[in-house]
Amino acid sequence: MKRLFLLRLAFVSIISVVLMGINSCQKADLSEIENLRNNKIGVIGHGGAGFPSTEVNLPSNSLEGITKAVEGYGTEGVEVDVQLSKDGILFLYHDSRLQTLTDCVGCLHQYEAEELDDCKYVLGFNTQNFNNQKLVRLETIIKRFSSRTSKPYIFLDLKTSPDCPHSFDYSNFEAAYIESLKAIFEKYNCQDWVIVESADFSFLKKLQAEIDELQISYFTLISESSIEQAVEHNFFGLSSNFGSASKATIKAAHEQGLFVTLGILKIRRDAIDMIEMSPDFIYTDNILLLQSILD
Hints:
Layout: H1 2-25, E1 42-46, H2 63-72, E2 77-84, E3 90-92, H3 113-116, E4 136-137, H4 138-146, E5 153-158, H5 170-188, E6 194-198, H6 201-210, E7 215-219, H7 224-232, E8 237-241, H8 247-255, E9 259-265, H9 268-276, E10 281-284, H10 287-294
Parallel strand pairs: 1-2, 1-10, 2-5, 5-6, 6-7, 7-8, 8-9, 9-10
Antiparallel strand pairs: 2-3, 3-4
Helix pairs in contact: 5-6
């Protein structure tokens, strides 16, 4: 009985190794890529260098993670999450509660900017390497890259629905959010390399009415109706999760002049499947993996 068990265990191990080998040898046919970027897919670091994992030891949305992605790995750009402070300053942060990733407690919108400047990242993988990194203001990132001749794409995932227990006037919050974004775009004239993204279609339309030549990517299921909406409102493109798009719908979007962004890449198999769908950009938590496949 024991021998039979060991034989079965050995067989399973061999099959696992074979499957891993097959998977590692799978390649994408880059000659089949057809998109709006001269058939080249842009590598976009998700939250900077990727969300913390065994491979990534920097906080998402941190200054260090963003600069490592662009200046260290040479990505075409980064995706960051944007939230509004109590006094109208835009910060980069993903979660709805500060205590999930930092030493502060509550919702970002409950704090003024000077208080948020002191919030340190403390939770995640490899936290010993976070090196007292703090929340960063959106303007810090835009200012850093605005002086470059070759600018990276900065995709702003706009967090416009704070999940906070305290009550507040949403109409005032929305107006303040738009004004803060408008001030940055007017100051840095960054419309050609900073792209705003949201699933809040109503907010995107209001934003478009206030900021000239704004490039907007509507985050949604890519379908005939969402393509029609994006075209009607002259959006830059559509963004979607990997499972909410297909090669056919991406091709249909391209035929209407819409750029397509897919996310979020973590493993090799997904990378190959995404590449074969011919998006224009891919958000990735594993930058080096995606770059190695596209090289």
